[in-house]
Amino acid sequence: MALGHLEPQYELLNGKKRYVQPIVHTMVLIGLTVLLVFVVILMFSVSWMKFDDSNNQNIPIDLVLYGPQKYTNSETASYRAHAFAIASKYSNKTSWTAKYKINLKNRINKAYNLACYYSIPTDNTSNTLQPDQINASLCTHLIVAFAQVRNNSVYFKSSLDTDVLRQVVKLREINPELKVLLSIVHFSNGSHTNEGFSDVVASKENLFKFVSNVESVVREFYLDGIDIDWEFPSWPLLNLEEKYGFAKLLESLRDQLPDSLLTAAVAAPLNIIDYSYEVYALASFVDFINIMSYDYHSYQWYFPLTGPNSPLFSSENESGYFRNLNINSSIQYWISKGMPKEKILLGMPTYGHSFKLINEANNGFGSPASGFGIGNSGFVTFSETCDFISHKKATTIFDHDTRTPYTYYEKDWISFDNENSLAYKAEFVASLGLGGAMVFSLNSDDYSGLSLCSSSVFPLTSRVKLVLNDDDL
């Protein structure tokens, strides 16, 4: 009887197991799913909080989602525009404002530098600006862009790069006063890295190797100097090793090349200035800085509104940090940080930024946009803008607040600079008595002079030179 009684109980237990196991499995799967969703939401929330600067960190959400390889092949201007746009979200300087609006009627008459970047063409066809087309007397300095940094040495992508560099140096035969520099570029890509300048400043051995190699390059190509374009040390992750390493890099280059020019291309947004630079080192070791005072506004998916590429002053309807996204604020902040005026060259663009409007009837600053407009990733040369204005019968407005023009036709919208807006910028230079102006770049100016709105070859750069030398606004 006992065994007979136990058998049904055992079968009943097995029956319970058959019913309980699927329920347990289902509950475990539901629990794991909920946990996974929670982790994903938590990671995204942390990433977004960092992106939104709530923890005083600033990581591009694109970088969080796609990694640093997303930026590997980006163009110079494209990366800078993205970095500047990220800086506009970083609001730790909203309480700082420029002390005053510079009076353009006051002028300090002296000799001003005009440094012009010349981007090495990707080929030697007639579709790109060649060295023999450059007016050797147009600029006081020609900065050939770019060499890169690899294995703690100066790296040229091809023999074409070195051939072009030699051809530019030969322009001194036409104008012996011309100074030719080589710009060396590196992008930190928003993350700690063991490449480029980051690797150079990581150890004394790496730094010594790089500086020695730079000296060899200067001698080999008979250069007048070197321009360091690190975009941007320590930004946005506050890597003090990079920030102070950049200062040490400049000091080492100055010691190794005492008779050569040493310049640095530096950021305009206030937040990047604070994160990236020891201003005392810049003031002590460089001959001048080239402030990249453009790309203040460009199309970004997280802030899809139109805005001026290189505004001289803020617009009346701007508030908070956006009131600092202009040349007047950037220059005054650099000066307030201790950079001598005479070592500041104000950067001026010869290109514009395009947007695709959502509603063509809403076409001023701050209008919603759905993406890039004409040009390559929203970058438009002056010749392309001239063609757009001439052939599309576009409406062109000159905004008095920002001293910049913009043009639109249907849903295409472009912020750009013309001779008039650059004349205001040149007057700004003369009103403050800065060291001069920098133009980026000769390649995107109308070097052929064939556009319908061009008065000559290199019309934009020529107007800057004219106003710097004489009051011709």
From TrEMBL:
Stretches assigned to coiled coil: none
Keywords from the named record: Glycoprotein, Glycosidase, Hydrolase, Membrane, Signal, Transmembrane, Transmembrane helix
SUPFAM superfamilies: (Trans)glycosidases (SSF51445), Chitinase insertion domain (SSF54556)
Secretion signal span: none
Domain GH18, chain residue ranges per copy: 112-471
InterPro entries the record matches: Chitinase_II/V-like_cat, Chitinase_insertion_sf, GH, Glyco_hydro18_cat, Glyco_hydro_18_chit_AS, Glycosyl_Hydrlase_18
GO molecular function: chitin binding; chitinase activity
Entry-linked Gene3D superfamilies: 3.10.50.10, Glycosidases (3.20.20.80)
GO cellular component: extracellular region
GO biological process assignments: carbohydrate metabolic process; chitin catabolic process
TM ranges: 26-49
Protein name: Chitinase-3-like protein 2
Lineage of the species this protein comes from: Eukaryota, Metazoa, Ecdysozoa, Arthropoda, Hexapoda
